[in-house]
Specification:
homotrimer; 343 residues; Udp-n-acetylmuramoylalanyl-d-glutamate--2,6- Diaminopimelate Ligase, Chain: A, domain 1; UDP N-Acetylglucosamine Acyltransferase, domain 1; nine-stranded parallel β-sheet
Amino acid sequence: MSSATDFVVASRGPTLQQPRSLRVDEIGHRLGGQREGQAGIEVSGAAPIEQAGPGEIAFLAPANAALLQKSRAACVLVPRTLPDAGGRTVIRVDDPRLAFGRVLGWLALRPAPQPGIHPTAVVHPTASLGERVAIGPYCIVGARARIDADSVLYAHVTVYDGVRIGRRCLLHAGAVIGADGFGFARAGDRYEKIPQVGTVEVGDDVEIGANSTIDRGTLTATRVGSGTKIDNLVHVAHNCVIGDHCVISAQTGVAGSTRVGDWAVIGGQVGIGDHVNIDARSVIGSAAAIPTGKHIHAGEPVWGVPARPLRQYLRRLACLGRVERLHRDIQELRQRYREPAAH
Amino acid sequence: MSSATDFVVASRGPTLQQPRSLRVDEIGHRLGGQREGQAGIEVSGAAPIEQAGPGEIAFLAPANAALLQKSRAACVLVPRTLPDAGGRTVIRVDDPRLAFGRVLGWLALRPAPQPGIHPTAVVHPTASLGERVAIGPYCIVGARARIDADSVLYAHVTVYDGVRIGRRCLLHAGAVIGADGFGFARAGDRYEKIPQVGTVEVGDDVEIGANSTIDRGTLTATRVGSGTKIDNLVHVAHNCVIGDHCVISAQTGVAGSTRVGDWAVIGGQVGIGDHVNIDARSVIGSAAAIPTGKHIHAGEPVWGVPARPLRQYLRRLACLGRVERLHRDIQELRQRYREPAAH
Amino acid sequence: MSSATDFVVASRGPTLQQPRSLRVDEIGHRLGGQREGQAGIEVSGAAPIEQAGPGEIAFLAPANAALLQKSRAACVLVPRTLPDAGGRTVIRVDDPRLAFGRVLGWLALRPAPQPGIHPTAVVHPTASLGERVAIGPYCIVGARARIDADSVLYAHVTVYDGVRIGRRCLLHAGAVIGADGFGFARAGDRYEKIPQVGTVEVGDDVEIGANSTIDRGTLTATRVGSGTKIDNLVHVAHNCVIGDHCVISAQTGVAGSTRVGDWAVIGGQVGIGDHVNIDARSVIGSAAAIPTGKHIHAGEPVWGVPARPLRQYLRRLACLGRVERLHRDIQELRQRYREPAAH
């Protein structure tokens, strides 16, 4: 635990990680890729394939193969299956986008948060911080909270008392972890608060977006499993158990005591009611709404308000488009029925 | 007004409220309940009935009466109407969940915010703070704002100039009270801001969730009535008047100049247009959307996009499921009409 | 760049801008309006026309012309086309609401943020701040970020490294500009983060509401054009390009790489998928959902889930109301078909 003045978001100190440059052969070697073309070109930047110029690396999405020939990039990461690179300097890899992400990290194009506790962070003396954590300006770590090694809290993150954050987590500005769950009981002419004495447990390698809120459990822990990625302005209510390696997009809300299985993929602005059970590997389309107590099965994505299996959703949408037509058909049948049939 | 260093969220001082233990007879006495079984057992914890063990109290939801016999809890709060407690140590009360909430408070299982102004809070010299308020780290209380007695602002709460917060309110981290309402007028080739010179008035016993925003009125006050509970990431726009004892769940938005009557219950992710009028005691289902200018009547919950009375909503949903069938029926009728009838 | 202690949101200093009073003839002169009635009345306040009293100015919305005679306002701003002011003191202007907004500003009814950097703001030494910026308490301006002249950051605003904010912008409390876009690639048994090395570029005269989040681009800049107004709790994802003079209401989310043309008007809680293309001057109704990759054309507002041109949306809504009726009609036709026709 050290006091640092060079936290990148807003340090007062001068040290910033500097961008690096890498040779194409070095990149190919690190990626375990198959290089074609010039080995010695230096790469120090990255850009979309349409915009990349000299000194810059890009990647080729399989759907856009035609862009390769027009690109002025110094080097392009391409699928191993690409038939012909047409003389361009390329590196063949299994997954060009994934490989590109790794190169972005190596080039250090953007300064990374440095380990240390910003002097303005307010960390309770009973809190526990792991090795190399980076706690940004105006972060708050409450009593008995614990943040494990190599995690980064950007600015203005509030970690309430007793919350646990695993290793290598990344919490963006304004995230609030461990505020009270929303629980009240009617007591005659008013509501009375049910104290929320549980906590929040966040696993390893979790990312939580800006201004998202994860409420503490009433009695036990609200859980977010390892490897799960949560976007901005997401709400996770008390007592939820989110599995490992889930993806939850922006502005989605998960109501109380809902369980989300591992590897679920949830779109943006989804509303999930309380006590819902979502199977592992389920896929939920953006803007879907899942009523209280439902069970979502994996196998087919669900979509719509209320959510239904995708094919059913699409069929209904199509039918809906035909309702006007149905109406005309019925008028016509009635008419015919009154007139003598023409056979 | 005192400067405190032991605010629980992130104090620098060592004092934390300690959990207590209570005897079963003492709990029964305080609740005005009817005890059966052992009077002298000490209770120092609480858990869901399935998980509670020795030393822990739980409550029995009426729907789960069978769980009582399997529970290992030291004491269970049960409905007065439970026929037979089967020899377990129980306390009979009118509302077990409500009673359980009170016991949670008495046990002090989680340290409560202590009155005082955290040294990092920025309170304008013209602001007024009542007795025993707890203002957490990095809270901001603007010019001429007023926060009444016994209210708690957790961390990073922003109270803009002129805003009034009543007694015993609880504002969670990141709540923003009194930012400008969203008002503009088109002025030729640009929008011009309509200054928002009104304010926000929050009654007593109001809870406002993490990262929720309540905008100030244009000329008058946006109002939130006493006893109202607002969840996380809720937006209340300028000039709204929210009644007393309302419940507004997470991520709901209320557009400008809307009036919500007392005791309304509003689900999560509801969208309420501007100039809507919601009767007292209305119930609005999660994910409903209420168009501009509508009047919502109490008596039957409303549901859906756009919102309709629940029975109508369910009937339409059922009909929708039959649209495909309708289509086939019409094809069949047409076919039959062309062929000679079989009678 | 100066250190200021009198930032209005929560200054420790005593200086606040004082309200002014203006004579009716002076107001008429400044507005270029046509005064009728008493020139010398002093105006020092403003209120809705129903509530305005002596010393207060109000404006008359064209739909509410009857309110003029009942108003006790010292002066009313009315449309130039109003036939008869009935002896009231009025000022005739082209757009009474716009004019009223200007008068509100002149009266200085609410203290405005004063230029200066609040001593608690954390501004990185490599950041660049223009003349007369007002940076409120606990704001954070990251490495190499740039905030141009006359912009105001209220409290707790986080501007990440490298972000650019134009002139005369207004960022409300808790806004987060430049957090990482939400980009991951599957790498076997986990997701791997795609570093987000782009930035955010915000034009001039942009307003961004409380707790809204604008993510940085993956490689290039997420852009918000000049004159655009963004409400509270809005999410703009990485790589979006929002045009000039757009209006985006509260809790709307715009997914990655979407383009919004100039002068688009977008309601509240709208969900816009990724790679959507929205024409200039499009109008999108509140609570609409626009699927990935769609092209929204201007000319007719779109509405609904999924969004459709307004007339089509309304027609379908009406048809939906008739589905029950269709069902009964078909039963009746079937019945008749089995019985001998009555002709």
